[in-house]
UniProtKB/TrEMBL annotation:
Keywords: ATP-binding, Kinase, Magnesium, Metal-binding, Nucleotide-binding, Pyruvate, Transferase. PROSITE patterns: PEP_ENZYMES_PHOS_SITE. Residues 74-303, 309-360 form the Pyruvate phosphate dikinase AMP/ATP-binding domain. Residues 436-517 form the PEP-utilising enzyme mobile domain. The keyword ATP-binding applies. This is Pyruvate, phosphate dikinase. SUPFAM superfamilies: Glutathione synthetase ATP-binding domain-like, Phosphoenolpyruvate/pyruvate domain, Phosphohistidine domain. Residues 551-902 form the PEP-utilising enzyme C-terminal domain. One of its GO terms (molecular function) is kinase activity.
Amino acid sequence: MSENKDPHVSTPESRESEGEKFVYDFTEGNKDLKDLLGGKGANLAEMTNLGLPVPPGFTITTEACKVYLESGEEPAALRAEVSAHLDALEARMGKKLGQADDPLLVSVRSGAKFSMPGMMDTVLNIGLSDESVVGLTAQAGDERFAWDSYRRLIQMFGKTVLGVDGDLFEEALEAAKEAKGVTVDVDLDAADLKKLVKQFKKIVARDAGRDFPQDPREQMDLAIKAVFDSWNTDRAKLYRRQERIPGDLGTAVNVCSMVFGNLGPDSGTGVAFTRDPASGHQGVYGDYLQNAQGEDVVAGIRNTVPLAELESIGKKSYDQLMQIMETLETHYKDLCDIEFTIERGQLWMLQTRVGKRTAGAAFRIATQLVDQGLIDEAEALQRVNGAQLAQLMFPRFDDEAKTELLGRGIAASPGAAVGKAVFDSYTAVKWSRSGEKVILIRRETNPDDLDGMIAAEGILTSRGGKTSHAAVVARGMGKTCVCGAEDLEVDTKRRRMTVGGRVIEEGDVVSIDGSTGKVYLGEVPVVPSPVVEYFEGRMHAGADDADELVAAVHRIMAYADRVRRLRVRANADNAEDALRARRFGAQGIGLCRTEHMFLGERREMVEKLILADTDAEREAALEELLPLQKADFIELFEAMDGLPVTVRLLDPPLHEFLPDITELSVRVALAESRKDANENDLRLLQAVHKLHEQNPMLGLRGVRLGLVIPGLFAMQVRAIAEAAAERKNAKGDPRAEIMIPLVGTVQELEIVREEADQVIAEVEAATGTRLKLTIGTMIELPRAALTAGQIAEAAQFFSFGTNDLTQTVWGFSRDDVEASFFTAYLEKGIFGVSPFETIDKDGVGSLVRSAVAAGRATRPDLKLGVCGEHGGDPESVHFFHEAGLDYVSCSPFRIPVARLEAGRAAAGSTGSDSR
């Protein structure tokens, strides 16, 4: 989806003139108001409504953010609304924001409709100042806690609000720990932290050009603006493009009274999942960190303990948390991701959301919830998507292979990833663009690493757990990830990693297994996934983990097949691909490209046809090709017996079957210099020059070939008809469909069809066999789509060739533009996704819709399909369902994805996202 603004949204002026409410107390909203309150704000309101322990606060709406982003200024009414809600919050808490003796502190957190972990800004401990830190000390009875909270505020505020380089604070913190001779923050005492606060304030003054603000309201107002601004940071835009999140949604801002997990050993913070987000299994999953604030957990800068250990640390809080988790999962009827803080034994809920999960977990959880009676099969189908299914079909490491184990971390996001070790995002992107596969290795990742994470095959960190930034983002993107591999010492400055005395330099190949957490040296061979083995009929559901996943996939696929309207065919050019497609559930072949049958040894026969000077020579060349074509079709009809097979007649430019013009010219020139020139090479060179075109994809190809080379299409039709007759006489059930490519006017189709009908009649007479061959065309030119009503008079079916249709509608040469300027178009938000990957609904899609309507108006029983690459794209499948097509056709390995998405489309899904 594009970052462009929606032209239909209301203007800032209209929203304010309508007296729109821009601030909601947590008691006023609910989980269904995500468009207005963002996911975080809506769910905080929902938990408040459920009576769960949520710190009081309020949410500034996404509409306020939109006004700010569009006009550059906050809504005029916003400050007064914030003040009114802040007054109410202060009255409820019995203290004022930042007051000297007993300060109210708040957090200011982002919260868009769709989860964007770590991509936007958060500031904790707002309200602290040189005066109020003394009051906080008295209030908490803990000087170290107060100064630790203050240094955190200056660090976060300086980086996110004032734009100070975050590394400057980190370096100062590391230096303080080194001077103290400690390795973790909690070992710094109050005196150390006071010194650090002074140093942090000097960094702010020097690098921000202003002092750290002492006015608590100024802190809050600047933080709110910073959160609004963070919607349009480069990393947020990149994440939205990756996840196909619209760019005009804006973010809400949540102002919440602070609760503190850094008040000592009876305090802490954590993240919990109601089920394992990596596997889907039920149990106690999550991370807990004593004496810490929430950012310490998700940042992965300190290694956590498993959530189960909370039971021995604070059983009362643990039991309450388990009860709340059960309440939330039953209420949301899904896996919930929960952030919580314990302040001196008191549990507080800071956030809940439907949790991101791996592809395998998505399928397992969907079927588990059906079995528990929480959702039905139709809803289970909406809980998964084709992109997740495609991930499950990726290969996995071979358990029998000889490996060299380097270490083991936390299995954060499954998959088998192999690549060269790189230690920063810039190198990951650079090497990836050069065709290298890389593994991004970091101590921990942060939002600035997003572009490197996207470029990498997998992510490996030495710190953090299943809820760290690396883990959450990797799971959302379907990237393999291993976190918290503590035995690995990562040195990003020296670009290397050491483990047990072994040094791994940048460029060395490593393999990571996101399902087991194992890290290997070198390339580990892979084997097919159990899901692919299931689709190929080589695996059945059983009791072990892999079989449990297969059983979940089987159940959901079976339901999708029952409810879908769209049939799914394969693009296959030979019997081997056809048989594989059939095993994957193909209901026929939607595209057999006959030009692939003319390659290899047969190329010489095509050369004879091109070089033919007389009718006799041309007919002889066609006679030589006929039995070979017939044999190809017999194999294909046998493999797909009883199912339709759409055969596209020869489509590419003829020069593709001739030698390269440069190589041939050099060969002829060298031969002439030796005075031993080959007559055939000379004729070939003349033919190559004669057939050379500046833009061959818009030249002599498709139906044009059939019209200017007598007998070419007739030979192919005869081969199809004779193969069908032979198969039928052998008690088979061939269902051939002949497709004429690149038709732009009905007259072209009428001429070819007349010739084809004559050939078919001749074959029927000669074999004594009645054939039911249908003749149709590809709609791949704008003119064909615009005159579809006329073309339908001569066509029994249409198949939309969306690859060429996209090229001709946009004026793009796919082979050139994707490598030249598509990256810039994606970065600038002109495209949300390549129009060759997902169909352009407004442009190309408009032509498809009009052609469907016009074609069926002429011929109500017109069969309609699509055979371009879009036929296997999840989002495009939904479009084709809505447009009224009868089938989609795609490559064999994408057939299960198309089947699943066709089912989702029929069951009422509004899209293929599962965020």
